[in-house]
Amino acid sequence: RPATAACAGTALVEWASEPRAKGGYTYPSPGCLPLRAALRAPVDGRLFFCGEHCTEGIDPCVQAALADGARAAALAAEAL
Description:
Blueprint: H1 2-5, H2 37-40, H3 62-79
């Protein structure tokens, strides 16, 4: 679990109770991009994760989340 070991911290925000937050995004810590492969790896060939936090080559934003969702959906379809 290299990505888990590299986690520097987390935050939980309930957007509905944060009137000034207006949204949020993730950003990679220096040197952590190669560790995201562990987040993309299927579990037992039937559980697939996706999202901006799983991408390496695209800025971690909505575009990355969309692209990675398509990747995970294709893997799930192949597994059926």
